[in-house]
Amino acid sequence: MTRISMTWKKITEKSTIVSGKGMEFEIDGKKIAVFNQNGYHALDALCVHQDGSIAPGKLDGDIVECPLHFWHYNIKTGELKDFLKDIKLQTYKTDVRDDGVYIDL
Ligand code: FES
Fold first, then answer.
1. Cα-to-centroid distance, 22 and ligand 1 (Å)
2. Residue 78 C-alpha to ligand 1 middle, in angstroms?
3. Residue 45 C-alpha from the chain's centroid
4. 80 Cα: distance to centroid of ligand 1 (angstroms)
5. Domains of the chain with bracketed CATH
6. Ligand 1 within 6 A of 47 CB?
7. pLDDT (tens digit, 9 = 90+) per residue, 20-79?
8. pLDDT of residue 28
9. What is the DSSP letter of 99?
10. Closest alpha carbon to 53 in 77, 29, 69
């Protein structure tokens, strides 16, 4: 799907998400996980397995582990790394500005 317009939204202050961790935000009714891991990475928060949130998952490099049953996703591409092929969570661009962290919805 081609996205016609970009809408940058401020999601939080720069100090909110601890380095090496993720947090979940609800924006326009969507649950989005934002990770602070070598820069900010944003993607849909709900695991395709049983809708667990990946935001509190453990990170290992670019890979986050869903806390519920340990499925793994790449936080940069959204790609599911195990069990099913060709599954991707939607990812969003991020931008760090003077006044906070923004994502492009
Ligand atoms: S809900 Fe994520 S692995 Fe089950």
1. 16
2. 14
3. 6
4. 11
5. 13-96 (2.102.10.10)
6. yes
7. 999 999 998 999 999 999 999 999 999 999 999 999 999 999 999 999 999 999 999 999
8. 87
9. T
10. 69
Q: Are 36 and 21 in contact (CB under 8 A)?
A: yes
Using left for φ > 0, alpha for ψ between -120 and 50, and beta otherwise, residue 81 falls in alpha
Ligand 1 pocket residue status of 49, Cβ below 6 Å: yes
Token pair of 7, please? 């809408």
Alpha carbon distance 23, 57 (integer Å): 9
Token pair 């060709």: residue: 86
What is the per-residue DSSP string for 16-38?
A: SSPTTEEEEEEETTEEEEEEESS
Residue 4 Cα to ligand 1 midpoint, Å, equals: 32
- Give residue 27's Cα distance to chain centre: 12
pLDDT band at 1 (very low <50, low <70, confident <90, very high): low
Structure-token pair, residue 17: 């998400």
